[in-house]
Structures are given as structure tokens and as C-alpha cells.
Amino acid sequence: MKVAVVDIKGKETGREANLSDSVFAIEPNDHAIYLDVKQHLANKRQGTHKSKERAEIAGSTRKIKKQKGTGTARAGSIKSGVFKGGGRMFGPRPRNYSFKLNKGLKRLARRSALTLKANDKAITVVEDFNFETPKTKNFVDVVTALGLDNKKSLFVLGASNNNVYLSSRNLKTSEVITSSELSTYKIMNANNVVFLEGSLEEIEQTLSK
Fold this sequence. Notes:
Layout: E1 2-6, E2 12-18, H1 21-24, H2 30-44, H3 103-119, E3 123-126, H4 136-145, E4 153-157, H5 162-168, E5 174-178, H6 184-189, E6 192-196, H7 197-207
Parallel strand pairs: 1-3, 3-6, 4-5, 4-6
Antiparallel strand pairs: 1-2
């Protein structure tokens, strides 16, 4: 698959980037995408939720009424969950939500997500660029020139570039990452994925394994 390479002003450079069919043109596996996104969201959960159970509630341990003859259910403690102010029954406890996925499945998920974006023509290839100093206006000009105003955009760099990253940090709809940070969640969460030329080779080498 060939995609025209544009500059930061959105104009074609006359060159084309060849996107590998093994990464950008496979049969998408929706279930692999689902599992990888599910793992990403699960790993972000702190799992620190906790409610007090009856053993942790402060209160009297006196038997609140006699066992028989009242016509109602037995009750041995005011801290029972059936009473107001009692402990919560089967409440949340601290836990770890993370789970394991095989590397091969995660690579399949990323290839599937990239294929879906390619099918939707939501992939743009831009020649490598840099800013002399971090400046949000410079990055906004790039986003506008590429026609990505008011769209969630994901910029993928070949290597870390502090000036470009800092220039994008104040924008809620744009995110800048390196190729090693590319994940299925980030791909699916963006309306358009913008690859800098220098990132394509590493991505294809990593995901073609």
C-alpha cells in the first residue's frame, strides 16, 4: 500500500511511503483488538476500592433482641449488613485487575487496528520535522495544515523529540508518542494516525515478527 508523503504544510512532497501489507493490510481480528484494549484499560485501574464489612464497623456486639418469640428474623449484631449503619455485604476489596496477553496476540491487535485505520483512509505520512523551540502555535499550525482540527490525532515519531512533544502537550485532541509507545488503545482512540517517515521502518520491523 502506497501513501503520499506530505510536509508540515499539508502539501505533497512528490514522494510515496510504502506501507507493508503484513502490517497495514491484514484480515483484522476484532477479538484481538478487544482483548488488547481491555487489558490496557484494566492495567490503568488502581484497584484500591474498599468498603467496611461487619467486622470492621464500630458498634456494640450485644445481641439486640431475643432469639425467639419476636415474629421476625433472628438478629445477633447491630453491625449486620441488613441494618442501617452496618457493614456492607460482599463489598469491593482491593484487587489487581491486570491480566496477561501473549506478545503475538498484542502484535496481531496492533496490526488489525492499523489495518482498520488504513481502510478508513485515516493514516497520514508526514516527512520528519522538528521545531527550534517548544511552541504550541507551531504544532497547532501543523495540525491545521493537515486538516485535523477538532479531531483526535495521534502523531507517531521515530525517536523522542522533546520540542515536538512539549509543543503538543497543551492540546487535548492531539497526542505525540514514539513508535515504541504505539498501542492498540491509542490507535483506536484516535480519529487519524499521523506517522513521521522515520517511524515506519521500526514499526514494520516490530509488528512483522
